[in-house]
UniProtKB/TrEMBL annotation, chains A, B:
The lineage of its organism: Bacteria, Pseudomonadati, Pseudomonadota, Gammaproteobacteria, Lysobacterales. Homodimer. The monomeric form is inactive while the homodimer is active. It comes from the Bacteria. This is Carboxypeptidase Q. Pfam families: Peptidase_M28. It is found in: Endoplasmic reticulum; Golgi apparatus; Lysosome; Secreted. Gene3D superfamilies: 3.50.30.30, Zn peptidases.
């Protein structure tokens, strides 16, 4: 528990503050950036509009397009250059949106059930009623065993799960012990040679069975499926289901139910009671065809090294469950605000600073991957259709990386996508040459709690496609806040869970990092690159 | 934060364990009780039936009657004596139940709103739609100002509230530091002479305005009112509204909305957006007239001192919001289980041990107060109608306490009503003569974490009516668990938030306390008594 005893370790902070800057930093510009960021911030106002006027932004939903227009208008209005949307995938998938969902237990007693539909699953077209059954549907043999038994039934897909009381506060700031931990690098264990093949095989199996299950449930005439939320305390954590692809079966209505209510359903069914529900889901696909998916860009043009690029970004898309405030409205407005600040303080960068608001992050970093493939570097498209069907991370043997002309002119990418959490430092991704540079850039922000340059890697967001092709791409270290305890992909991912002061702090640091990267003599150094097939 | 650093203070536990018992304790009976409680427990099974087959148990609702029958059948089936329901209030109020509630924002964008109706408020009789307005309705002048403006409107009654991140774990066990704190007694500050009159004046004002507001909203044709939940993180904390009394206006449909959603509504309205909701509440009064309200009793008859009483109890009624598992299903099944254990181990108490399952606790300790007035002691009924209208705690000047014959033959009352939390000790309510007795009774349970006899008072539940008339009445010290952080009067008050091992531990300790009280030579000593008018 000592991790949660504060007051300790201030000495460590002192030590960090004592780091000497080998790298020149324009402290006058830091002052101007901080003044604009702290005393004229628009971050919270932007987030309120994005989350509560536009709302959640599922990729290719009408609200996503609304968000792109909204962002474009703001960025253009601030006088940024080259503001436009650009297609990264001409056939990403169908549009989808949901209006409401009502689930009621009718028997053995009346109980309103807390539930939300999975994205890209059909609505019920009005209220439907049916008996609840719990059957194993994990493999083809299970489907064969259930053939003819599920017509008109509502199917529980998961087991009940015991409540796990939280032993830590829901909302956390890193203390100095946790920050100190980040100053260490855990030497990697040897990777199981077959690990990737194993993950690939599992992925293929899951993918294939998912399609089979969707088709089976439709064919058998099941009314709906229910799954348990992966969070306790009534929190609904809901992502995608069905299929977004035209021509593929979207299955039957599929909802995620709060753990407290789901467990009651399982206990009643296993107690041999007659359990009946009424379900009314108003959800719909907004297109029959696969629609193109877009990113949104804007620039502060460079002068002198205008064709060299510094890119900052965050993902515009969200799940439909909350309003996408922490994931990743916070990142979107922090990055927009960083561009606004640089424009407002009259920054004249040597390199061009480009803002990218990505789509399709939640479906596999699609917007940022599309950007990297088109403009920086890509592996040859596989010809083998089986390989084609795989996410690029799984594709193998298509040949060496093909670098575009701008590959060498690219400097760096900075990303912000771990919720509201204030910046405490940055992940150097094992690029040791950037460590002294980042230490110098962070020093003017030690008084805001941003002190650590960790050599560790972090993943799972839009800096990874840059990192994968050997280009500098970085995500900041952020306080955990209640990101993973409460809001990540849940109905609590709303405006109230974002801390305006955190947004101001992040915007100031990112504006400064982007400016420093755009002004320094050299582009940021790169780390050793391993071809995909050698990994 | 040191309070959350465990491992400390085991020495204190050791010290506590070293307390010498002046009071004889039948350790053979303790062994038999523990064996039955731990190895043949029915507590969790009882709670599952009570919360998930019977469901929540609002006083005078059909489910409350179902619960009384359920408990009576169990208690009779175990061979307990004198099992029956008894009216404590011939005209408590009307029955009420609700089936479902659906609230959707239609404008400025689509959003399903998390909300539940307040008890004893009307349903909507199908879906209704209206504009949302936020107006001050706190005093008569506000009503005058709004006259003619609220027809067809949905009224926000509260301001938005800033999210407050939790800085402690939601689920807590007392550590030794917290237990040590309980071993101290804070000397009371002088009470402001006018404090009671002030509270009384406020109560009268609130009561009068509440009635005026209900009538006003009906007269003006408002569609519904919305209030903010007093918990964050989507938790719905919902008690009563409207009126349960026949002949009084129940007002318009009144719902409590999750803080995250309520704040969005306020921001949209204050942002001058056109906010429209659709509300569909299926709730109904199940009687036109005030129905009598009952407690449920059962006995293990004494032999030798059969007309002397040891009473153990908990309240059967709950709010309608969750399933009343922690508040107070846990207490009900712990007390039922204690009786079952005593019967199962063949206990032959000298004094009669009576189980009381109270109704109306949530509306003001009504069931237990009714019992005390009828059988033990009461102040004369006020004749002044104004006094009549007040809760008895506020009534004054009706003369000295009238003691019934059984007042002197009464020994003690034990209560359990603070959620699932395991017993860590007992509140002696400033009765110092019972301290050495309780210390001796607790010693065989030190190994279960029950170590402290605090001289402090605790209130707010069914031991208070006994305490108020100078009779021994006690509530146990229980681990906080997530009672006040999450489940108290909320939609999370469900079976999954109760820890079965805690129920076993409590049942063993309470069975032993009841047996000891029924067997000891003397009735439990009493503390100095102050007449109500002297307080």
């Amino acid at each position: 528990m000592r991790a949660w005893c504060f007051g300790a370790g201030l000495a460590v902070l002192g030590a960090a503050s004592a780091v000497q800057a080998a790298e020149p930093v324009d402290l006058d510009m830091v002052s101007r950036i901080r003044d604009e960021a702290f005393h004229h911030s628009q971050a919270a106002a932007l987030l309120k509009e994005l989350t509560e006027t536009v709302g959640p932004r599922l990729t290719n939903s009408p609200a996503y397009d609304h968000a792109s227009r909204w962002a474009g208008d703001k960025l253009g209005g601030w006088g940024l250059a080259n503001v436009h949307d650009e297609v990264y995938d001409p056939a990403f998938g169908r549009g989808w949106e949901f209006r409401s969902a009502r689930v009621e237990m009718l028997s053995p007693r009346q109980l309103p059930i807390r539930a939300l539909p999975k994205a890209w699953t059909p609505g019920t077209d009005g209220p439907v009623e049916g008996e609840v059954v719990k059957v194993e549907l994990a493999k083809q043999e299970d489907l064969d065993a259930q053939k003819g038994k599920l017509r008109g039934k509502i199917v529980l897909l998961d087991d009940a799960r015991a409540f796990e009381p939280a032993d830590k506060p829901d909302f956390r700031r890193y203390d100095e012990e946790a920050i100190g931990e980040l100053r260490t690098f855990p030497v990697p264990e040897d990777r199981d040679a077959g690990a990737t093949d194993k993950r690939l095989a599992e992925f293929r199996k899951r993918q294939a069975f998912g399609k089979a299950l969707n088709g089976f449930l439709v064919e058998e005439g099941a009314l709906a499926t229910l799954s348990i939320s992966s969070r306790d305390n009534g929190i609904l954590r809901v992502m995608g289901g069905g299929s977004r692809k035209a021509g593929e079966s979207a299955g039957v209505p599929a909802l995620t139910v709060s753990a407290e209510h789901y467990n009651q359903l399982v206990r009643a069914v296993e107690g041999k009671q007659d359990v009946r529900l009424r379900i009314d889901v108003d959800a719909r696909f907004t297109s029959d065809d696969n629609l193109p998916a877009t990113n949104t860009y804007a620039e502060l043009p460079g002068s002198g090294k205008a064709n060299e690029l510094v890119v900052i970004g965050a993902h515009m898309d969200s799940w439909h469950t909350g309003t996408g405030a922490s994931d990743n409205g916070a990142g979107v407005v922090v990055m927009m605000e960083a561009m606004r600040i640089l424009k407002a303080v009259g920054a004249k960068p040597k390199r061009t600073i480009r803002l990218a608001l990505w789509g399709g992050e939640e479906q596999g970093l699609n917007g940022s991957s599309g950007y990297v493939s088109k403009y920086l570097a890509a592996y040859p498209e596989p010809t083998d259709p089986e390989q084609k069907a795989l996410p690029s991370a799984f594709q193998r043997g298509t040949g060496p990386l093909q670098r575009k002309a701008s590959y060498d002119r690219f400097s760096t990418y900075f990303n912000f996508d771990n919720g509201t959490g204030r910046i405490r430092g940055i992940y150097a991704q094992e690029n040791h040459a950037v460590v002294p540079i980042f230490k110098a850039w962070l020093e003017p922000f030690h008084d805001l709690g941003a002190t650590v340059v960790t050599t560790r890697n972090t993943g799972s967001t839009d800096h990874i496609p840059f990192d994968r092709v050997g280009l500098p791409g970085f995500q900041f270290v952020q306080d955990p806040a209640d990101y993973f305890s409460h809001v990540h992909h849940t109905d609590l991912d709303t405006y109230d869970h974002v801390v305006p002061e955190d947004l101001k702090q992040a915007a100031a640091i990112i504006a400064s990092f982007a400016y420093n990267a755009a002004m320094r003599e050299e582009r940021l150094p790169r780390k050793p690159f391993r071809e995909r097939d050698e990994q």
